[in-house]
Amino acid sequence: MKPIHLLGAIPFLGILGGIFFVNRVTPYVLGMPFILFWLVLWVVLISVTMAVIYRLDPANREEETS
To answer: Where does the sequence pass through the membrane (predicted)?
Structure first.
């Protein structure tokens, strides 16, 4: 399996797998219940992860013309 595919699985595991572990309301982070903060955090992390995947994908590299 290529590292790009593993990076693509991280957001899936973070959002869907993490929900079972962070299903709490009492700790508030930035004024939000912890589960809502977890989801917002992963939305941001998914954007970062997809940008890294885009940079690493050889199909997106342009050949330099001199």
So the answer is: 6-23, 35-56
| C-alpha separations of 9 from 20, 30, 49, 52, 56 in Å | 17, 27, 10, 13, 15
Task: Provide the residue range defining the domain that includes 35.
Answer: 3-56
Q: What is the pTM of this model?
A: 0.72
Tokens 């982070």 belong to 29
Residue 17 lies in a domain: yes
Confirm whether 42 is domain-assigned: yes
Q: Is the pLDDT of residue 65 over 70?
A: no
Q: With CA atoms as reference, report the closest residue to 18 among 40, 30, 35, 6.
A: 35
Place of tokens 């572990």: 21
